[in-house]
């Protein structure tokens, strides 16, 4: 069932014609699927981050991969990043249908995964990055970004013209 929120009504009179234009925002069931999918991606990342926070050893260094959750290796930094970014995606996707914040959260998650790939291939650093965890960040970030590009609301415009016919 679609809900209607009147966006605006514009009434103009031109001579003997009265023209009313009304725009409605409708929450289409088909389009809200994209919003729900983006929220599910954030929830999955948040849940993995939450489990990872309890698996990693914070005393062994923030940049060493010390935890394993569902086959993904997490360092302390990656666990906290998954928790924060997943929560950000989840809240922004569900709170007030904010597509801009959701796409930004998706881009930040995507960037975190790309940085993970760059650091993973650099042998000069002491930072440990699990390639599967970096892939997870890239996949969820890219999916959320693309899902946020699809409009979650559709607009419908109705024009009503009232013409008065004068009898001669």
Architecture overview:
It is a single chain. It contains 4 helices and 5 strands, in the order E-E-H-E-E-H-H-H-E. By secondary structure, it is of the alpha+beta class. The protein has one domain. The strands form 2 sheets. It has a 3-stranded antiparallel β-sheet with strand order 1-2-5, with no helix packed on it. A two-stranded antiparallel sheet has the order 3-4. Helix 1 packs antiparallel against helix 4 and helix 2 packs antiparallel against helix 3. It is elongated, with a radius of gyration of 24 Å.
Poorly predicted sequence stretches spanning 5 or more consecutive residues: 1-6
Which whole number gives the mean pLDDT? 77
Strand content: 15-25%
By DSSP, the count of extended strands is: 5
Q: What's the arrangement of strands in the largest beta sheet?
A: 1-2-5
Radius of gyration: 24 Å
Order of helices and strands: EEHEEHHHE
> Which oligomeric state applies?
single chain
Q: Share of helix among residues?
A: 40-55%
Q: How many structural domains does the protein architecture include?
A: 1
